[in-house]
Amino acid sequence: MSFQEQLQTLRKSKGLSQEKLAEVLGISRQAVAKWEVGQSYPDIARLIAISDFFKVSIDKLVNDYEENCRLNIEESKISYINEDVIDFLCRAKKATYAGKGAETKPSRPNSHDLEYSEGELRYYDTYLGGEKFAGEEAVWKGDIPFWTMNYIGRILGEGFSGDFLKEALREVSRDFPYRGPVMYENGQYKYHCIVHGDFNWFQGYEEIYLGNNKIYECFFHGGSI
Predict the structure, then answer these.
(1) Is residue 148 scored above 90 in pLDDT?
(2) What are the structural domains of the chain?
(3) DSSP state of 197
(4) Alpha-carbon torsion 24, 29, 31, 32, what sign?
(5) With contact defined as beta carbons under 8 Å apart, do 79 and 147 qualify?
(6) What percentage of the chain's residues is helix, strand, coil (to nearest 5)?
(7) E strands, 170-211, where?
(8) Dihedral (CA of 142, 152, 166, 193) sign
(9) Where do runs of H (alpha helix) occur along the chain?
(10) Quick one: average pLDDT of 84-112?
């Protein structure tokens, strides 16, 4: 079932008109109408608001991820960004935090820092905090930084598993080189990730459910610089 069909079904199940749903979400009725006929698609913030309002996970709300949230890697004006760089980024992510790689010397008080390099390419990931955290990933060629991603997240409920998060993040791929895959499951744990934009300019959101309870979320955005 497509997003527009899911939205109509959920709205009608609560006996809401398009006007009432629009009022709840703080948008116009025309916006809801366009969503329901497939003329437009909500941004990440609105999608999360819809998910929270109807108490459904994003994977249940949106089944056409590949159409609506796919990555479109366009030719970059920056010659550094190419398939080799994206492959390097994926290897770096898998070898550092997701792969339980060793931390390097903190660059700031109480920061967590991880590094990975191959030839001229260098990857750094540095973050602060624990149950609530924020950080940045970046890639350099020589002494020139050319791609970065900032993120902030938090644990929302009991049962969170850092090992499951890292397991999901190790599934990062060339087609989706941001955090983890669109969807990943292991037992009662479910990981979902959505992205709007392309490798050069994007924003995204990931969440983890344990059963029917959302226990973790993280916002991220980034691009070429």
Answers:
(1) yes
(2) 3-68 (1.10.260.40), 83-224 (no CATH)
(3) E
(4) positive
(5) no
(6) 30, 35, 35
(7) 183-186, 189-198, 201-210
(8) negative
(9) 3-13, 18-25, 29-36, 44-54, 58-61, 65-68, 83-95, 162-169
(10) 97
